[in-house]
Amino acid sequence: MPGNTFGKIFQVTSFGESHGEALGVVIDGFPAGITIDSQALQAALDRRRPGQSTVTTSRNEADQAQILSGIFQNKSTGMPICVIVHNQDQRSSDYDKLQTEFRPGHADAVFQAKYGYRDHRGGGRSSGRETVSRVIAGYFAELILPKTCQVIAHTKQIGELIAEKFDPDFIEQNPVRTADPDLSNQMQAYIEQLKINGDSTGALVEVQILNPPQNLGEPVFDKIKADLGKALFSLGTVTGVSYGAGFGVTSMTGKNYIANPANFGGILGGITTGEIITLQIAVKPTSTTGEKALAGRHDPCIAPRIIPVIEAMIKIVFADHYLRNKISQEL
Amino acid sequence: MPGNTFGKIFQVTSFGESHGEALGVVIDGFPAGITIDSQALQAALDRRRPGQSTVTTSRNEADQAQILSGIFQNKSTGMPICVIVHNQDQRSSDYDKLQTEFRPGHADAVFQAKYGYRDHRGGGRSSGRETVSRVIAGYFAELILPKTCQVIAHTKQIGELIAEKFDPDFIEQNPVRTADPDLSNQMQAYIEQLKINGDSTGALVEVQILNPPQNLGEPVFDKIKADLGKALFSLGTVTGVSYGAGFGVTSMTGKNYIANPANFGGILGGITTGEIITLQIAVKPTSTTGEKALAGRHDPCIAPRIIPVIEAMIKIVFADHYLRNKISQEL
Amino acid sequence: MPGNTFGKIFQVTSFGESHGEALGVVIDGFPAGITIDSQALQAALDRRRPGQSTVTTSRNEADQAQILSGIFQNKSTGMPICVIVHNQDQRSSDYDKLQTEFRPGHADAVFQAKYGYRDHRGGGRSSGRETVSRVIAGYFAELILPKTCQVIAHTKQIGELIAEKFDPDFIEQNPVRTADPDLSNQMQAYIEQLKINGDSTGALVEVQILNPPQNLGEPVFDKIKADLGKALFSLGTVTGVSYGAGFGVTSMTGKNYIANPANFGGILGGITTGEIITLQIAVKPTSTTGEKALAGRHDPCIAPRIIPVIEAMIKIVFADHYLRNKISQEL
Amino acid sequence: MPGNTFGKIFQVTSFGESHGEALGVVIDGFPAGITIDSQALQAALDRRRPGQSTVTTSRNEADQAQILSGIFQNKSTGMPICVIVHNQDQRSSDYDKLQTEFRPGHADAVFQAKYGYRDHRGGGRSSGRETVSRVIAGYFAELILPKTCQVIAHTKQIGELIAEKFDPDFIEQNPVRTADPDLSNQMQAYIEQLKINGDSTGALVEVQILNPPQNLGEPVFDKIKADLGKALFSLGTVTGVSYGAGFGVTSMTGKNYIANPANFGGILGGITTGEIITLQIAVKPTSTTGEKALAGRHDPCIAPRIIPVIEAMIKIVFADHYLRNKISQEL
Fold this sequence. Notes:
five-stranded antiparallel β-sheet, 27% helix, homotetramer, Chorismate synthase, AroC fold, alpha+beta, 331 residues, 8 helices
């Protein structure tokens, strides 16, 4: 049954395989009359691009966005927007063995069991490469939100290295995308060492949403934290999500909990209060290890590259709820 | 915009306020010809009922389920099933002050901001009482799943008390619904002491899903962990969700991660493998503290009563995906 | 699979069988802060009530609307509104024979084939009685639309009797709900004669929508005429729908067609222009004839009673699209 | 708000403008393991192609289908299928005047009013060219249905010329796609004369569905006739739809109606009985007349080219309901 469409008003449909002709996305429900900057769109894509540094895969995918519909003379027309990225540098033959061999920790075997047939090349649809579609949609989502709203994700922890300083301007200036200038070198060295060993590492990504719009979230099932949770868990790499005090609440008393509004994480009753929203996201180590990892075409730590995707998914949820909220009160 | 319907094939629509005429649920997409046991339905409801012990609220709500449609001579007809529960023991006047007063940590103020008007009595629709609808739907969901599949939630941690033993038969035999016979008394005493102080506590609920059906989950957005995540975060009380190795992955290497399949939590590529599924759920302390809590009509720890609701939500997701999966392969 | 929910923002879920405990509807997505007049709601229901005259069934169903949720102190709260009608005067035993006997032209046999099990009493869910839910939803839909918008359905033709005059005030003053004062007596006599013969008649219902909101309809699949078409064909009794010049276009040239804007029926490109909208709806003769019809508990002509239902369905579509249209242009 | 997705299990998302980069479609929910014949897909597209004869537009669009995803080594993988058609022979400059000029009977003005901005070239998204996407989806829909099921549309009437013979093999052998060999020359001559006059004509298209699957249709809103109605009215050119006895019921008595099962049109209670289904569809004359029509780039009668689209839409509805029906009875 279909599962490749997300959102109710800002509606995103993703398609494409890792080594197929092209990946892409259809965005339906985008209002008319909004100016599109195709360079900014490309820049958003470039942020998740592999081959950016020693801590990411050495694959080099140009990932050139091509707009097929919905934009006329740089403005949205209210019609569905389709954007595609043609695949390149595919080296499908690298994956020939995967036709009959299932990699541990990968989706190969489950896709075979569920569908009885699959595109085995590079994980096919289960590849992280699918997130290209999400980053594209995230660019459009951002255009809907108030300009003051900022979604900032950063690498909070890798191994035992826990960032303590938070300098948002530093995030894009270091390959691990940590906000702590004092720790970036150590984090980078840790990942590079793992890479040499044919190993990888998990990470903790923290998100701060500054100046979020108020009143987002629709009771009872479409609470904002429910839809954010779904969006984030729809990323293959995410194994845990929490907001505000998160798992810390398990040993907290009610008096302590309500004493510090930061514990609420900017959400009450499943609806944004307008206060800063904080999220913690656990990202698992990439499952490709040993010889295959040594070949260098895999990420020893996915955090730096999943960060733009996490931000995109959050913006997609917010754009959808921003439009949904417009119809809550008397007309 | 509507947010009270959940699921694509097994479709649950919840309605009703804490102190309105009735709460209820419409279940559409339930197959025809399945035998309904109204006593078992009532027993499911009774499990979440308040007033069961010293560690829950003293409110006594009979919560009598009344079937309005979709069942004929104890069998489902394929038509939408509506079940309602009339409200009793409402004491609306207890809440008169709430019309203009907003309780910290509650949804009162955000509902007022979002809708401009609200039913303030007992939290109205934001009350935990709404979960009655979910427990009813969970009963029907269970009828769709293979009988061997078991969803077992238990209180893993309260304060600093962490359960280590796991005796599933013990869960229903103690008021805190822990699976550790050695710890139940301490947990109970801890909660009772907080109650005397007009305080409350958070908790960690662990879930084990035994013999889950294989192949549940629809790429890419409707991964099983995405829909479970949404379902669980749609409960007001949940602040964190993780599966398998959970937040432990943040300091784990890839080699360690894939060495122990238990880390995958029974899910790969967002699809169930058929192996046991494990989930960790953070439950915040109830926000009602101080004088109001002393009145005794609030839960000093919501874990024991949220456990049947958590199980219900998981069964609802599974029922929906169980039906969805039937259409994956060639006809 | 579920099929009992209609609409995307103004979302209507219908439930209940002809002879079950109750019929009802959940309306989700209704904005907060709108005043509800329960007497007007009851009056809307009374318009479709049987037993109103010699040309309708003699069954007498009080059809008392009971609001279960979503309304507080006569104002909507933005929460889902559930309204039910308990069944009375059911005489289920009248239908005992139907358990094994299938009536020609009825849904008995197809429900048995599709579901393998059914509530046979009075047609169960396939009974026209289900439209009670739609009339309730129509009342709420009307509250969303501009007050100047009027949906006026009337009996245009019965047998060979074709109304020519159009006096909208006359419609509620005669039992056949024709707008032609000169023809009402003949129409009534024609139906009464058929009733004596144990027979029934089809009819043509015409609808005029005065002062419709402009810009309703969402390309390409949710054109206003597409969603109206679905809404009207979802009534068991409707066998044909056309708008504007309707089937007359088949022998019309393009020059003639565009010469008279009335031919467009107030819709261009699937979007309302703001001009008057005209619809023609073919209503089949009730299939119960002969001895059973003589028992008097069936309508010899359904037109007068389907008219309030047709109006309700149109209002439901309009309310949904009215809210949907709010998000078309730049924010 | 989004309106470019159709269907619940077999889910079709259409995108693209008449003179944009490309038109296309994403089909989600297509089962895995089905063999795709790209030549047959192309042949389906060629059937609706303009420039086929003197009675259609002289525009010559190659309309080459390009598969971007979801198919691997000629078999479906269960992943979303994206197919696009690049636009050619666009002559956008032909339409320069349309930027500020609104053509009567076209959607130009309503798109401007609704969206405040539009792609004016050739009608943009409101162009009949959008139906390319539907024909592609129809090819895939057909692969899901039993091979015995046949959807046959033909031109029943043009002007006063009414086909009486029905030879299905003849339909593809004449440019007007009538099934009556005795009338095709007259019909063709009638259209050619109108074309010379810069005029056009409406038509009646009849559909026969042979060996339809039984039990399709989901009460109460998703009756098969409701979803067919929506699908057909979502075509800009359709002004009327009826099934079985159609508008003939308005002057029919119940005894006559039930005497001939053909009157039911193969549908009872909104569910297919397995008997032949008959539909009548009114198709309006193309609104481009006068000088513009003389330029020859418009269809003087759209019936021959809308017939493959009508068939496609019916197959799409049937494929969706065929999959939906699989979950009606006990598991």
